[in-house]
Design a protein that fits this description.
With about 325 residues, this protein is α+β, with helices and mostly antiparallel strands. The chain has ten helices and eight strands. Helix content is about 45%, strand content about 15%. The chain has a four-stranded mixed β-sheet. A four-stranded antiparallel β-sheet has the order 2-3-7-6, with no helix packed on it. The two termini are about 40 Å apart.
Amino acid sequence: TDWNVVQRYIFEEECGFAGTPPLIPFGLAMCGPVLLRFGTEAQQQRFLPRIYNGDDFWCQGYSEPGSGSDLASLKTKAERRGDHYLVNGQKTWTTLGHFADWIFCLVRTDASLSKRQEGISFLLIDMKTPGITVRPLILMDGGHEVNEVFFDDVKVPVENLVYEEGKGWTVAKYLLGHERMNTGRIGASKRELAKLTEFAARQTGDDGRPLIEDARFRDKLTRVEVELMALEITNLRFLDQMRRSGQPPGADVSMLKIKGTEIQQALTELSMQAVGPLAQPCKSVANDADFDRFTAGLAPRYCNFRKTTIYAGSNEIQRNIISKMTLGL
């Protein structure tokens, strides 16, 4: 679109507030920026037009069974064999991997180095390559969103290495900065807050009065509203920094991830409290006689949003990043 950062922000927040189907970020907001910054000219010409046009669906190969927030402990290995790498290992919690054409992966190409962040490389892998197995992980709401991905002697051309061998951690940090910038979801939280406020105004409690008049509930609701306003102002500060400098956000962007995901979870919890016994189980269907679209969406959303404080680096990890990189502790 050639939009600047402010125009993109406005568009994304308005889409969130309107509840439009989201653009899946793995290609557009994660792999694309990485290739623009670190990719070779050949890689850019090959992959970027297909990402832009939606021809390729991407997924992310970061987490492993023993390496989630402690990502530097990853064990999936890639051994150089002439003009290709041989990849063996496993990734987990791979969002929408069962739809993906390609996966960008962090792999260990040198296990002899003492510092775990070294010896990691960033590879682009075709999901149709022989040796790749995708197995579903069914979530507590019954949905198939994430997967396990197994690599058994998967041949990956050396030309699919992004940046330098052993420098994948540099690429990963750059990508995570873009991912965390998108985790605030202020527009979507505004939408959920408005829906909850409207529901509380017409839902009556045991005393026959609207729930919004209950002092305890109103206090919880207004606290979340104030925190959301503060988050929006903080996000605009980052946006202004990016507009002025033309550079991606630094370690401070972790604040958006921490507070944004905490607000999202708080809204799902308050919504469940507001509905109470009216909350419908995750498997309610639209042709049930007592189906209510608003309440039917709350239980699956509550279950699904338990993950928000964990993905893109857990909030505990984000606090460590701020303490080290920003406060110098």
